[in-house]
């Protein structure tokens, strides 16, 4: 068991790090953020000052190689996730990494196997898995409240880039203007795919679906120029599960509505649940349920045990949900037992599902799951 407090080294100090990761860690008295790293010296200095972290470095390896740091939290851009993660695991650190660890699920499996070989805990930034409403719904499903799951609908809407003048990191294959690159389904669909697997509870067997590029001309963040982007900014997929269950997944970052825009509905033989993770009227989440004996959906109270101490649905969702995520990870590490939810194995399953969705779009056909390892 790691001695308390857990000492956290964070690699990446951008917007998501300062909105969720650092505040989440600092909320837990068992944890201490002891060092920050970022190649952007200005971003690094601002974060250090805001959160009172004295130690900083522009070279992440200084944190990875420090024997006194227990956990490396990877909050860099996607391109650096795998490199930093593998270096941290090789150095014997527990790792929290933002999604995706890698765009190829086979590489995520490799990271999971390395962690297992060293007895290390891992966790993906599946933020919405740790929303109190989602956690309570999962418990209800496990306890048979919905009966046998028949159908699940998962939505992620995000209107941040509906306006093409809003800068977006350039994506797409500039050498092939007709090649539509995965974007929304990986960046925004991943959280609901994670919940889909968790709640359905049986093996995924096949998928089919399609992607679209609704707003192809956009301002590139790095250049400020309007450029053609060959990316998926909207998609829909259907999934078949063992035992006959069906699921649909829809994600987009050009759909009107409040952030984060998560809604997951599950319908079973005994009842149905609807979780909405949308900031509306100052509340960041709701849970509604119906049964075959009372078919009207009614709001359900979320027990306080699913919240961090003093937490409520009136808090900003990045703070509330990520507080639960890091609290869960800290407990798993400090307890030293086998429990490790939302880990790299789950991340590999989600990434393999995304890879299967993409394959279905490319082939214009159903794709069997799991994918072959060839």
From TrEMBL:
Domain of life: Bacteria
GFO/IDH/MocA-like oxidoreductase domain: residues covered: 136-273
Entry keyword annotation includes NAD: yes
A matching Pfam family: GFO_IDH_MocA_C3
Domain Gfo/Idh/MocA-like oxidoreductase N-terminal: residue ranges: 6-123
Keywords linked to the UniProt accession: NAD, Oxidoreductase
Entry keyword annotation includes Oxidoreductase: yes
MF annotations from Gene Ontology: nucleotide binding; oxidoreductase activity
Annotated PANTHER family: BCDNA.GH03377 (PTHR43818:SF11)
Name of the protein in question: Putative dehydrogenase
Organism expressing this protein natively: Phycicoccus duodecadis
């Amino acid at each position: 068991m790691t001695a308390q407090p857990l000492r956290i080294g964070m690699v990446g100090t951008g917007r998501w790090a300062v909105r969720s990761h650092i505040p989440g860690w600092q909320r837990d008295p068992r944890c201490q953020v002891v060092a920050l790293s970022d190649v952007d010296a200005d971003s690094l200095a601002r974060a250090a000052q805001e959160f009172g972290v004295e130690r900083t470095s522009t070279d992440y390896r200084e944190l990875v190689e420090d024997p006194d740091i227990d956990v490396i939290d990877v909050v860099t851009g996607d391109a650096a996730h795998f490199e930093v993660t593998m270096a941290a695991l090789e150095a014997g650190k527990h790792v929290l990494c933002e999604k995706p660890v890698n765009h190829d699920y086979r590489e995520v499996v490799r990271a999971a196997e390395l962690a297992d070989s060293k007895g290390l805990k891992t966790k993906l930034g599946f933020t919405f898995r740790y929303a109190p409403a989602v956690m309570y719904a999962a418990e209800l499903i496990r306890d048979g409240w919905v009966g046998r799951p028949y159908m699940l609908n998962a939505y992620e809407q995000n209107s941040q880039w509906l306006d093409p003048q809003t800068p977006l990191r350039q994506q797409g294959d500039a050498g092939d203007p007709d090649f539509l690159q995965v974007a929304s389904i990986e960046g925004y669909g991943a959280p609901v795919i994670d919940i889909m697997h968790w709640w359905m509870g049986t093996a995924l067997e096949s998928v089919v679906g399609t992607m679209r590029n609704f707003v192809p001309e956009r301002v590139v963040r790095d250049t400020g120029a309007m450029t053609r982007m060959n990316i998926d900014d909207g998609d829909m997929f259907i999934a078949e599960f063992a035992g006959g269950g069906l699921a649909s997944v829809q994600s987009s970052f050009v759909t009107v509505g409040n952030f984060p825009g998560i809604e997951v509905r599950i319908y079973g033989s005994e009842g149905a649940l609807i979780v909405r993770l949308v900031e509306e009227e100052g509340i960041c989440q709701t849970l509604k349920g119906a049964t075959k004996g009372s078919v009207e959906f009614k709001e359900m109270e979320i027990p306080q045990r699913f919240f961090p101490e003093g937490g409520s649905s009136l808090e900003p969702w990045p703070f509330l949900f990520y507080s639960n995520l890091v609290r869960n990870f800290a407990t798993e590490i400090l307890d030293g037992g086998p429990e490790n939810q939302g880990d790299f194995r789950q991340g590999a399953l989600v990434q393999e599902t995304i890879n299967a969705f993409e394959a279905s779009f490319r082939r214009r056909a159903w794709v069997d799951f799991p994918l072959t390892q060839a």
